[in-house]
From TrEMBL, chains A, D:
Its main location: membrane. One of its GO terms (cellular component) is plasma membrane. GO terms for molecular function: transmembrane transporter activity. Keywords: Cell membrane, Membrane, Transmembrane, Transmembrane helix. InterPro entries: ABC_transp_permease. This is Monosaccharide ABC transporter membrane protein, CUT2 family. Coiled coil: none annotated. The keyword Lipoprotein does not apply. The lineage of its organism: Bacteria, Bacillati, Bacillota, Bacilli, Bacillales. It is a multi-pass membrane protein. Pfam families: BPD_transp_2. It is found in: Cell membrane. It comes from Alicyclobacillus hesperidum. The chain crosses the membrane at residues 35-55, 61-82, 89-107, 113-135, 142-160, 180-203, 234-255, 313-333.
Automatic annotation (TrEMBL), chain C:
It is found in: Cell membrane. This is Monosaccharide ABC transporter ATP-binding protein, CUT2 family. Gene3D superfamilies: P-loop containing nucleotide triphosphate hydrolases. One of its GO terms (molecular function) is ATP binding. It holds the Pfam family ABC_tran. Keywords: ATP-binding, Cell membrane, Membrane, Nucleotide-binding, Repeat, Sugar transport, Translocase, Transport. The keyword Ribosomal protein does not apply. GO terms for cellular component: plasma membrane. It is a peripheral membrane protein.
Length: 339, 314, 501, 339
């Protein structure tokens, strides 16, 4: 391309600016997908604030955010898998396995931080296996991660023989992660914030992360463009597993308990959060912000169910209904925009 | 370790089985901690008797899976089966099928009363719920608001809730059950629900969690709200995490069931029937007399900071 | 002066199940030449290009880059060796912006993050050569096929390669865009780059290329300097015999009006469109890229919602609110976007052809397989689809043969009116004249035919009457000896828009 | 095309015959996908027969088949959804809802057969709602059926207040469905056989069902070819829900119990069975035979776990492992064929 630069192309810099201007306007438009969900959230908050005064109390807000920290962290990882056109059903079991491995090493006398690193390493290993089978052997992600769900869950069961591990007497610095406060806000929320912001920047701007979008949008074109698709896929599932592992260790730190059943059903919650936030199962689409908003929406609905004292027998009905309503609204809003 | 165990040592004489004699324990949700207490008792008895035991079951809360597992176990023609029924009605035919095939069956923890099983060993879950209500009622001096966290749709848990409600309304009219919430047998979900409950009911005095993970989840949420101690938590079962939480004061008490006894005496029943060691009447089989006590209450203990050490050292 | 040889392929052989796609093909590309590669549909051109760019592994044969033997294990290897390709089938990323599409695999970055400013500058430099109307942030899925083709071309240009390979780049381009491309190609040539150019358009080839190589049935027939060849020579090399005439004689349409479209409005690309079609007539529709030809037809057959307007068939007004309605009335539309909207790539030829026959092929609710086989056999035979059997997956056919299957799926029905949007895109000379012949025969049998084409010669050669579209509306209607290149272009560029009628 | 016939193209009829011959050979090749799974099954059976003699006993065979009847029936419906490029996470809850509706109506004095019809009608209604939202409103199938899972499960909970309904004293003819034998083989197995054979023929040959494959292969091309995509989609989800409903009612008949928890996790099992059998989440592929074989494979593995006395803590690990191994084998076998 350098050799072409000699050509005097009449490039008025004003023209580029005009285009940049159009660009920022356009970017706003594309963001509207997330805006609809934001709108739904705002409406829900207003309705709830009117119906129950305690809803907008600082305590309740903190509580609600705290309740979605794990889902949101896992959803960030899931977003990447979804963007690539795959997904990961094993996140829930990786979560429990990471906690269980960390916990049982700590109970056997290992320093808890070292144990946590082993927990993360175990998560990453499971991510590598998943990624290699999906990326290199080209096993369908659904069946591979469903299989891994069984295998990893199995590891957690074998390690604990089914019993939750009570991890007591570990260093306070570790417990601070899940139980401490900084500036009056739980550390867990700070951690979530950091993960979201960093991942959002990476996924939006890092060259390496953009490859995931290319793969999800058109895998064979990505391959033809020289992207090492299978290698990127391995990284994707490592990332997903790593975040699941982090969330498992944070769960351990929060509850001082590592249960082999922790994280059950997390996979569906996380996928739901991502899709509510605009990700697509067919790949190429999805943002960290969307995943966060999706998690928040689900969190608010769950909170509202309790605050409004909805009977447990009605809760799943109401949740399902709100889910459908929110996404329908989103789809209809976009359809109008399109026409 | 595996679910199979054999014992070589053991007494001789009538109470000594053969090494290829295998007794099965079949459960639903087979991965959970709770059954381990039962199986420990069963293994202890097996060791004394010199027989083999196998613990198997349905990993999920799924009727079809447990019935299938029972059928598969029956096909292996074992010396006896201990079974806890996910659903009494659904398990009855397959229990009867085992009896018809000459395999003695003992029911534990969750009964199938219409079936031809020889005996049921366990505490009624209703009664366990009542005991929890008694304890919490006393702790709260008969007044205040309490909440229940359970997993709806699971029969044994539902029965605990039922017992709790009954006892509270009869004995402690001053205590109001303000909510029954779904903790989904999961710490994270329970923590979320509990936090929200603490928001809605700032004066909440007690929580009854019908399941161990729900107990620790509720304890964490209460701690996060800085209300440890002022909200009394009664949990269920005696896994290490629950016991530790009792020791540290985060959980006030837990309901311990006589799981070890269910396993031990259950196998004893099976063994004696299998070896035809019992003669309450002559020809009990033909005359339709039950050779073993048909209903055995294995009891309920409330574990608190006072007696928790006994369980911790177990 | 002997030019430097940039790329050399020797004895390339590639076998697919059921086909020998390449059989000992030799080719050399010199610095500063535009080398045309020609051949019938399915001759093996794309396969050959895929081999020398690392997307396919040859069964045997060697590739040398600047005299050095190389083995490409992936497209990246070829790229590193300075070979860039514009694939025949679009390989873009629909959900991603134009800018990131262009710079895939070579995004400028700082600290691992994309440098958007630099990206915009790089893209802009080439995009402006094509005077495009979309922004760098537009998602590719919102572009028309021709706009996507431009993006695809720019994507190759920014790589700064030594050898550029273009596999039918102009099959979806307007004349204007094509000529802008040619300017760029000549610049590249002047810089000493090597260019391989595949096209079925003879005028382009003779206007542009320095040498021509011809493939037939996977074998290299020969290479010769362009100025030593006539188009008849090339055709003979391609098909092994000479073809007599390119366009069939024009017909004499009846007086009876078959289709009348009045005051059709649907969005900004279809405004007040009024025209009619007589029985037995071939109506050519011409317009520049983005003039709205496709949109008008989509609104007509009920794919896009209509704001106002009426459609009469055989003098009776028909309600067309959906594609199904138009199909029921015998009004068929053949899409220009065969990959996204036309074909079932993962299904067989037979399945693709029978999709439009489901009702007539149903015997008691079940598919009549014998009849389906007959139909697909006749499509394969009549359109000369090069395939191993009617069970071959359409996705594994060559581009031109895919196009034939798509045409076959509609023409094997009994239409009243058929609208073909760029029907001969990517089809070789021989097959093209056969399709023209076929269209003429259909017309003679009383069917009304509308052909949208971006190829002026095709419009001129085939149409009984020409409709020129400009900016979403009918700019002019031309008949008889009015149908001439200059006049059509005048209307198309909006010079006569006031004189519409 | 008739007008084309005048063209004297030199087509020797011999050429066509050669093509036909190659065709039948080709068709055999495409069937190999299911052959690999069949092979895996055969190997498993042989290994198991050697390891445990009781494996090939009539009792055990009947038990194993019986254990997969419900999964297999649901999988047949799921196949259709998968072929169309969608899927259905609500099948499990439709299953329990159908049983619960039937059961509670019967307990309130309605004739059990009539009640069962109401149960099926309720299932079909839920299928219509799902289908309309997916087909017409164009909601993402994942989120729609996840939402419906909540809603329908909620209905089952509300109807039963969480407690399983014990349905006794109903007509023997109804119980015969789930508990009877014909020629020594359980009626349930006969029912499964009929459903599989009929659905297989329909999906392979019926014109209406072929449309599902077209939609799954390229939705917009199907639309432009005149297929009423949204209408077909409504039918797809009706079919899926209907089969789930049938399986719920059969469950009721088999156990005389209608539990609101019945069918939990059925959706993943069914999808797994279909994918093992060769269906693809991206649509266009999948057969009834494949779904059946997938279910059988899972059934055999579960059976083997019990027969081999695998520790309960190891079971999910082993299941996951076998799942991955089977699919990997399948993929590798095909890759070899392809190269
Ligand atoms: N993946 C494949 N599997 C089987 N056959 C294939 C495959 N790819 C190409 N072919 C066959 O190889 C032959 C050559 O195809 P190719 O695409 O190279 O033709 P082409 O010269 O580019 O034609 P066109 O002008 O139509 O683009 C065709 O007969 C085609 O059907
Ligand atoms: N999916 C789409 N979303 C937004 N705009 C579109 C879309 N498809 C096409 N357009 C716009 O509509 C206009 C007309 O499209 P198109 O280029 O297909 O017209 P045409 O006259 O049929 O030209 P051609 O057939 O040569 O491509 C273009 O300006 C294009 O930008
Ligand atoms: Mg080609
Ligand atoms: Mg067009």
């Amino acid at each position: 391309m350098k050799s072409l630069e000699n050509h005097q192309l009449q490039t008025a810099s004003g023209d580029i600016q005009a285009r940049e201007f159009r660009t920022s306007w356009f970017r706003k438009l594309t963001k509207i997908r997330e805006f609809t969900i934001l709108l739904v959230i705002v409406v829900l908050v207003v309705v709830m604030a009117i119906m129950t005064p305690s809803f907008l109390s600082v305590d309740n807000i903190v509580t609600t955010i705290l309740s979605i920290v794990m889902t949101a962290i896992v959803s960030v990882g899931m977003t990447v898998a979804l963007v690539s056109g795959g997904f990961d059903l094993s996140v829930g079991s990786v979560m429990s396995m990471a906690g269980v491995v960390t916990g049982s090493l700590a109970l056997n006398g290992m320093n808890i931080w070292l144990a946590a690193i082993f927990g993360l390493v175990a998560s990453v290993c499971s991510g590598i296996v998943t990624g290699l089978f999906i990326g290199k052997v080209k096993i369908n992600p659904f069946i591979m991660t469903l299989g891994m769900q069984g295998v990893i869950q199995g590891v957690a069961y074998v390690v604990t023989q089914g019993a939750p591990l009570s991890v007591t007497g570990v260093s306070n610095s570790f417990l601070f992660l899940g139980q401490g406060n900084i500036l009056g806000i739980p550390v867990l929320i700070w951690i979530l914030a950091v993960i979201v912001v960093v991942s959002d920047i990476i996924l939006r701007r890092a060259v390496s992360a953009r490859k995931v979008y290319y793969i999800g949008s058109n895998e064979s074109a990505a391959f033809l463009s020289g992207i090492r698709v299978s290698r990127v896929k391995v990284w994707i599932y490592i990332f997903t597993a790593l975040l699941a592992g982090i969330s498992g260790i944070l769960t351990l730190s929060r509850f001082s308990v590592a249960a082999p059943t922790a994280g059950q059903g997390m996979e569906l919650q996380a996928i739901a959060a991502c899709i509510i936030g605009g990700a697509s199962l067919s790949g190429g689409e999805g943002t960290v912000l969307g995943a966060l908003l999706g998690s928040v929406l689900v969190g608010i609905v769950n909170d509202a169910l309790v605050l409004l004292n909805v009977s447990v027998y009605w809760q799943s009905l109401v949740t399902g209904f709100v889910l459908i309503a929110a996404v329908t609204l989103d789809v209809l809003a976009h359809r109008k925009k399109a026409s | 370790s595996t679910g199979t165990s054999t014992a070589s040592s053991g007494s001789s004489g009538a109470f000594h089985g053969s090494a290829n004699e295998t007794y099965y324990m079949v459960t639903f949700l087979s991965g959970i901690e709770y059954w381990k207490g039962v199986y420990a008792g069963m293994q202890a008895a097996a060791k004394d008797l010199g027989v083999k035991t196998v613990f198997t079951g349905a990993p999920q809360y799924d009727i079809n899976q447990e019935v299938t597992t029972m059928q598969q176990v029956i096909a292996k023609k074992p010396a006896g089966i201990m079974v806890t029924s996910i659903n009494a009605q659904a398990l009855t035919p397959v229990i009867n099928q085992a009896i018809a095939a000459g395999i003695p069956v003992i029911s534990f923890d969750s009964d199938a009363p219409q079936s031809e099983r020889y005996a049921y060993l366990g505490t009624s879950n209703v009664e366990a719920g009542q005991k929890a209500a008694d304890y919490l009622g006393q702790q709260l001096n008969g007044k205040g608001e309490v909440a229940v966290i359970s997993t709806p749709g699971e029969l044994n848990l539902d029965q605990r809730v039922q017992g709790f409600r009954q006892e509270m309304s009869q004995k402690y009219p001053g205590i109001k059950i303000v909510a029954v919430q779904n903790g989904n047998s999961d710490q994270i979900k329970t923590a979320q629900v509990t936090s929200a409950l603490l928001q809605s009911y700032p004066g909440l005095g007690g929580i009854f969690a019908t399941e161990a993970d729900e107990g620790t989840g509720a304890a964490t949420a209460v701690k996060e709200a800085n209300k440890t101690g002022s909200v009394k938590i009664v949990s269920f079962d005696t896994d290490k995490a629950t016991l530790d939480a009792i020791k540290s004061g985060e959980i006030t008490a837990t309901v311990a069931q006589g799981t070890w006894n269910m396993g031990f005496w259950g196998l004893m029943d099976l063994f004696t029937i299998h070896h035809n060691l019992l003669t309450p009447v002559a020809n009990w089989k033909q005359s339709g007399v039950d050779p073993v006590p048909p209903q055995v209450d294995t009891g309920v203990t409330i574990v608190t900071s006072k007696n928790v050490n006994a369980y911790l050292s177990k | 002066m002997e030019q430097k040889i940039l790329l050399e392929a020797r004895g390339i052989r590639k076998v697919f199940p059921g086909t020998i796609a390449l059989d000992g093909v030799n080719l050399e590309i010199r610095a500063g030449e535009i080398h045309a590669l020609m051949g019938e549909n399915g001759a093996g051109k794309s396969t050959f290009l895929n081999v020398i760019t690392g997307s396919l592994h040859p069964d045997s044969g060697t590739i040398r880059v600047k005299g050095v033997d190389v083995t490409f294990t992936s497209p990246m290897d070829a790229r590193r060796n300075g070979i860039a390709i514009v694939h025949q089938e679009l390989s873009l990323f629909p959900e991603i912006s134009v800018m990131e599409n262009i710079l895939v695999g070579m995004t400028p970055s700082r600290y691992g993050l994309m440098n958007r400013r630099e990206m915009a500058e790089i893209c802009d430099k080439y995009l402006r050569r094509f005077e495009v109307q979309f922004s760098l942030q537009t998602l590719v899925r919102d572009l028309s096929v021709s706009q996507q083709q431009i993006v695809e071309i720019v994507k190759a240009l920014v790589t700064g390669a030594e050898v550029y390979i273009f596999d039918e780049p102009t099959s979806a381009l307007s004349v204007d865009d094509a000529s802008r491309l040619f300017v760029v190609l000549r610049e590249l040539k002047a810089m000493g780059k090597g260019i391989v150019y595949v096209s079925h358009k003879f005028d382009e080839i003779f206007q542009l290329s320095d040498r021509i190589s011809v493939l037939r049935d996977g074998r290299m027939i020969g290479t010769a300097p362009t100025n030593e060849l006539s188009s008849d020579d090339v055709i003979r090399m391609m098909v092994g015999r000479s073809l007599e005439r390119i366009y069939p004689a024009k017909g004499s349409p009846g007086e009876q009006l078959l289709l009348q479209v009045k005051e059709l409005n649907a969005g900004s690309k279809c405004r007040n469109v009024t025209f009619d079609l007589r029985q037995g007539e071939i109506l050519g529709v011409f317009g520049l890229v983005g003039s709205g030809r496709t949109e008008i037809m989509r609104a007509l057959v009920g794919i896009d919602a209509r704001v106002s307007g009426s459609v009469e068939l055989d003098g009776k007004e028909v309600r067309i609110h959906s594609v199904q309605d138009s199909i029921r009335h015998g009004l068929y539309y053949l899409t220009e976007d065969r990959k996204q909207q036309g074909l079932f790539l993962s299904m067989s030829i037979r399945d693709n052809v029978s999709v439009t026959h489901l009702t007539n092929l149903s015997k008691g609710g079940f598919l009549n397989r014998t009849q389906a086989a007959e139909i697909s056999a006749s499509v394969i035979r009549d359109l000369r689809v090069k395939s191993s059997s009617d069970q071959q997956l359409v996705g594994s056919l060559s581009g031109g043969n895919q196009q034939k299957v798509m045409i076959g799926k509609w023409l094997s029905l009994q239409p009243k009116v058929v609208i073909l949007d760029e029907p001969t895109r990517g089809i070789d000379v021989g097959a093209k004249s056969e399709i023209h012949q076929l269209l003429r025969e259909l017309a003679t049998s009383g069917i009304g035919i509308i052909v949208i084409s971006s190829e002026l010669p095709e419009i001129v050669g085939l149409s009984d009457r020409v409709l020129v579209v400009h900016n979403g509306t009918v700019a002019g209607e031309l008949q008889g000896d009015q149908i001439r290149d200059e006049i059509i272009m005048e209307y198309a560029s909006g010079l006569h828009s006031s004189a519409a009628g």
